[in-house]
Amino acid sequence: MRLRGLPGVLLLTAILLFVVPSAVSFYTDWLWFRELGYEGVFLRSLNAQTAVFASTFAAVYLFLFLNLRFARKRTNERPRVMLGTGGGAASGVGARHAFAFRAIRMKRASRAEFWS
Would you list the domain boundaries of the chain? Predict the structure, then answer.
């Protein structure tokens, strides 16, 4: 079965479901305002909606971008803890955490073997 055309079909379906109804709504509003002679009012409201959307989008994008950049910078400064099977020599803070983790795991395993 060939799925090569599936993304195109999904995109076309999304356009038909979301874009076309909105475009039809804007077009009917445009025709109605034009019939009444208030094209300027329609265009002004459309421009206001676009300006509000663009400014809100920019503010949210900037907020998320700066927060994610700050979070990424903060996580790169932390020392990395490598937990392994004990094949290599470990040192520093990571070694103490790895040793404690192995000790707890061995203690739990011994309890499980005792009770089963």
Answer: 8-76, 80-116
